[in-house]
Design brief:
Number of domains: 1
Largest sheet: none
Distance between the termini: 29 Å
Helix content: 55-70%
Structural class: mainly alpha
Number of helices: 6
Number of strands: 0
Order of helices and strands: HHHHHH
């Protein structure tokens, strides 16, 4: 039952949070209109999106399966999620969101989305520093502190942490 509730909550949060931030708002800003852009830039944008979306979906699945909860602050995980992409970087979900927005900017030739990506990055980093890290420290204590010391927050480590 907990797994089912976590899956439903995560699916709903996926639509509401990254669905809006990565999908609805970039569409609203640009109508996904293609502007003239060199092909290598478009390809790079497509690659960023192609890498970011599976990382984002995978992070959500890990919250359900490994954490028995959701990424939503109102329904957090029961266990600290330190598997998958979380073995390389503490914030793969946020990095994937920003990468997908940057990818859209490059693919569409819409520099306005680079500004939007910078705003999202600022808001995400602020949220992590002011709310998420203190909440995880309170909830998981030394387990989170050890993880935090071993795994960088924003620049992925090349070799996965085996904590």
């Amino acid at each position: 039952m907990r797994l089912r509730r976590a899956a439903l909550g995560s699916a709903l949060f996926f639509v509401v949070a990254p669905g809006v931030v990565v999908g609805v708002l970039p569409w609203w800003i640009t109508r996904w209109e293609l502007r003239p852009t060199p092909m290598p830039v478009r390809v790079l944008g497509g690659l960023l999106i192609a890498v970011a979306l599976p990382v984002l979906v995978g992070a959500f699945l890990r919250f359900v399966r490994d954490g028995l909860g959701t990424p939503a602050p109102v329904a957090p995980t029961e266990r600290l999620v330190v598997t998958g992409a979380y073995r390389h970087v503490r914030n793969p979900m946020y990095l994937a969101v920003v990468s997908a927005i940057v990818g859209q900017a490059l693919l569409l030739g819409q520099p306005v989305l680079l500004g939007y990506a910078a705003l999202v990055a600022f808001l995400v980093v602020s949220f992590v520093r002011l709310y998420e890290e203190p909440a995880l420290r309170r909830q998981f204590g030394e387990e989170y502190d050890a993880y935090r010391r071993a795994v960088p927050g924003w620049v992925p480590r090349l070799h996965p942490w085996k904590g």
